Structure formats: C-alpha cells, structure tokens
Amino acid sequence: MKRFQLLVDGEWINPEGGAWFESTNPFNGDAWAEIPRCTAKDVDKAVNAAYAALTKGAWAEMTASQRGMLMHRLGDLIARDAKKLAEIEVQDNGKLYAEMFGQLNYIPQWYYYFGGLADKIQGSTLPLDKKGYFCFTRNEPIGVVAAITPWNSPLMLAAWKIAPALAAGCTIVIKPSEFTSASTLEFARLFEEAGFPPGVFNVITGFGSEVGAALVEHPLVSKISFTGSDATGKLINQQAAAHLKHTAMELGGKSPNIIFEDADIEQAVFGAVSGIFAATGQTCIAGSRLLVQESIYDEVVAKLLEVAKTAKMGNPMESTTQVGPVTTMPQYKKVLDYIEIAKKDGATLLLGGSPGKAPGCEKGWFVEPTIFGDVKNTMRIAQEEVFGPVLSIIKFKDEDDAVRIANDIRFGLAAAAWTKDIGRAIRMSEKLKAGTIWINTYRAISYMAPFGGYKDSGLGRENGQDAIKEFLQVKSVWINSGAVSGNPFVMR
Fold first, then answer.
1. What is the pLDDT of residue 68?
2. CA angle (405 as vertex; 401, 406 as ends), nearest 5
3. How many domains does the chain have?
4. CA nearest 34: which of 250, 242, 181?
5. In a shared domain, residues 226 and 95
C-alpha cells in the first residue's frame, strides 16, 4: 500500500503526529493508500511557509510574466501526466475514468489561461477632482490562500482556485477532502518540476475537525476559498468572519432542468440523463429537479425511462461503464436514506431505488439510477441536495409556473431550459435565479466562463476574468504633484 507524505515549504515530510489514515477505493471497498493525518502543528508549518514565500524570496520578487511562464510549464506537466493522475482519481472517488481523464486533459487550460492573465492585471490612473495630485491604483495579491476542495472532482475544482490565485501572486495551502487526497498529493510533485519556489504551494491532509478550523482561523491566512456543502460553507464563513477574512464559497445546488412542450424531446431527455446520472449525480450542478410541461409529461417520462434503463453500472475504469459507485460510504448511506424519505413523502418510484446489484458491483457503493415521478416541489427530495443518482420529476403548467417552481428553492447554482422559442430562452435567462443558465444543453463549463451561485449556493465567482479579482486587493496611491498645503486641520 502506498504511503504519501506532505508537501510543505518544498519538502516532502511526515505529519507531525506520525499518523496516517487509509484511502478506500469505492468500487471494491479496498484500502489502497495511506494519507497523512495532519494536526494544527502541520497547518502552522504550512501557512508560515506560504507566508514566507509571499513576502520574501524568489516568488515575491518574480515578475508577473515570470509567474505566467511557470504556470504554463505546470500546465504542460499536467498534460504529460494526465493518464496517471486520472487513474489515481478513479481509485479515490470511483468516477468514470473516461470523465476523469477528460478532466485531466482539460485542466491544463486553466493554467494556460490564468498564466496568460498574470501580466494583464492592471491598475488605473484616476482623473481626480483635485488639482496638484496624481493618483493611481495597484492590484496586489490578497495574501496566503487556504483552498479547501471536495471529493467529487478534486483536481478540476482545485484548478479553479489554484490557477487564479497563482496568477494574482498569492501563495497557497490546500486541504483536499480526506476521502480523495491522493491525487492532490501526487499533483503537488509537479510544482517543483515546473520550477515554483518552495512554499508557494503546500498540501495539508486530514480531517476537518483536526485541521480545517486551524487552517481557516490561522492569522496569516487572508483568504479562504471553499467548495463543498452549504452547511460546511456557512460554518467556515462564520469562522472566517470572526477574523475578518475574505471568503469565496462554491456550495450546493438543487438545479431545475426545464423541458417545455416545444423542445426537441430527444435532446432534452439526453440532457436530463446527463444532468443527473453522469458522475453518478455527484456534482453540485446536478439537474436533480426535472420540470416537465404537463402536455408532454407522459412522453418525456417514457423516453427518459427507456434511456435510463440502459445505463450500465460497473468498473469505472472500463470504457463501457456509464454509472460508477458513490464515492464515500457516508454518502452512499445518505443517498439510500433520501430514497426512502421520498417514498414516505408520496413520490412515485419509477426506476431504481435500490443498491446496485449488477455483476461486478457487489463490493462497491453502488446505487441504481433512480427516478421519482409525482414529485411536489415542497417534498424533501425536491428541496434538499441528495448528491447522488436520484431524479425528481415535477409537472408544470406554463412558463410562469415553471419559473415559480424553479426559483422556489434556497439554492441557485445552475438551471437549464429546453425550448425552440428564442424569446422564451431569453426570458428564462433573465428570470431564473441561478449563477449559470443553460439553454438546450447541460453541464457545459469553461475556464473562460464565470461560475458561482445565487442564494445559498455560494459567494464569489470562479473561472473567467472575474476569478482573478477574488485574489486581489486594490491600493490607491496619492502623489502630491504641486498642491500647496493649506489648513492642516482640514481634509485635503
């Protein structure tokens, strides 16, 4: 069994307490790696290393163009090692190799894009209302960034934080999920090879109760960037607020996927399947609420069941597998619990609803693709994030009714509408309260497109040019160019 070490200040070290914990493959339940179990002492060591790199030495003296070149080099190394890193991710989280390899081949673009933005960060000169002064602004790195990442797409979602933070000139301490730490630790090896100075990127692993709070509350951490559940995000935000720290929160969702009667039904059904059963429903943008107009409800349900019934569960490393296991045992139990809750609340089980029994899946944490009909938007299955392959179908009458149901939720991460009416498409983009709106597609993302949520789905934006602003602070500089001092007791 492979035993990993921590990366702190450019050195591979054992955890302070000398303890490790096992990482388990969700496909077969086998432990395959040992992950360092860190303590607050490890956190302190990592944060101090990041702060030292931020304030003195090679990284602090580096030009923005030089930072960009290092990031481009890092992107090349990720592309080179995409296969190895994807295989590690599959062992850790059980998602399809096809998906994880696709992500790893795409991730370099984040480092190319933000590396290219590094030397495009500009201040401005201000046309003041006062004579005799020259004033300009500087954009400076916000400081040491604590990046806390989830288990569903570890390196992809890490890139959303790491790339803009590095481009801004920040240094980073990352804490990956305790369930999927191996790929981040392996990825960290590429920083030295790319030529990053020691301390710029540091990895801390372990449990939230043992290291999470210590990282969030550390006095030298200036920014916390978190992806995960809304409950944990709120807790972190409270802890950060006590120390006046900056935060960015990419949290949960309960996204509506709306099919209107004028939609291309076949494409809409494929979009519905992709929205909830791809990645075994373990995405924050999962289209877990399928809103179907009454006039086409029976037709959509019939076609949806026809497609969903063919989904093949199995080994996520095999190219023919379409649905992999749930990543963690607690999440597996949670998904099954929600299925029982939906039954008790009166939803009609149309498909699945049981642990996966397909050949080869006996040891893994599999849940059958599950579809509920006759769902009311007030039911728990429609209001709470399940984070698994469970779809709720809700009828609606007309456009206003669809908007009402879609927005009647405390989340607002993503939404989609399927229609051939361009006017309706535009109206949906205006009326749906979510950070990302898809029209006649689902699950499309880009390093160029801002991503984030409304309401309880988060704070701030990742990706696109807006993302780099999350890791900068603005300084105004005033220069007296000829103004004569007047009364010293009066504001200039």
1. 98
2. 115
3. 2
4. 181
5. yes
Q: Report how far Cα 454 is from the mean position of its chain's Cα atoms.
A: 15
Same domain, 7 and 127: yes
Beta-carbon contacts of residue 174 (< 8 Å; ≥ 6 apart):
146, 147, 148, 149, 158, 161, 162, 184, 201, 202, 203, 204
Q: How does pLDDT run across 197-253, given as a tens digit for each residue?
A: 999 999 999 999 999 999 999 999 999 999 999 999 999 999 999 999 999 999 999
Task: Give me the helix-helix angle, 64-80 and 154-168, nearest 10°.
Answer: 160
* CATH for 403: 3.40.309.10
Tell me which residue has tokens 């006590």.
Answer: 242
Structure tokens at 455: 């309401």
My answer on whether 182 and 262 are in the same domain is: no
Which of 217, 250, 385, 462 is the catalytic position?
Answer: 250
Contact 213, 193 (CB under 8 A): no
Q: How far apart are CA 41 and CA 287, in angstroms?
A: 41
| Exposure string over 314-326, b if 16+ CB within 10 A, otherwise e | bbbbeeebbbbbb
451 belongs to a structural domain: no
Q: Predicted confidence band at 407 (pLDDT cuts at 50, 70, 90)?
A: very high
250 included as an active-site residue: yes
Q: Would the pLDDT of 22 be above 80?
A: yes
**Is 34 one of the catalytic residues?**
no
Q: Is the dihedral of CA 189, 191, 195, 199 positive or negative?
A: negative
| Rounded (10°) angle between helices 97-106 and 82-93 | 140
Question: Are residues 241 and 329 located together in one domain of the fold?
Answer: no
- The residue to which tokens 């497109």 are assigned: 449
Q: Classify residue 60 as exposed, middle or buried by CB count within 10 Å of its CB (0-12, 13-18, 19+).
A: middle
Residue 122: closest CA among 469, 450, 461: 469
CATH number for 146: 3.40.605.10
Q: How far apart (Å, rounded) are the C-alpha atoms in residues 383 and 377?
A: 7
Residues 319 and 305 in one domain: yes
187-225 per-residue burial string, b: 16 or more CB within 10 A, e: under 16: bbebbeebebbbbbbbbbbbebebbbebbbbbebbbbbb
One of 284, 361, 368, 470 is an active-site residue; which one? 284
Please give the structure tokens belonging to residue 248.
């960015």
Domain around 407? 256-439
Whether residue 284 sits in one domain with residue 185: no
Which residues, 6+ apart, have CB-to-CB distance to 449 below 8 Å?
Answer: 436, 463, 464
- Tens digit of pLDDT for each residue in 380-401? 999 999 999 999 999 999 999 9
Contacts of 136 (CB under 8 A, 6+ apart): 123, 124, 125, 126, 476, 477
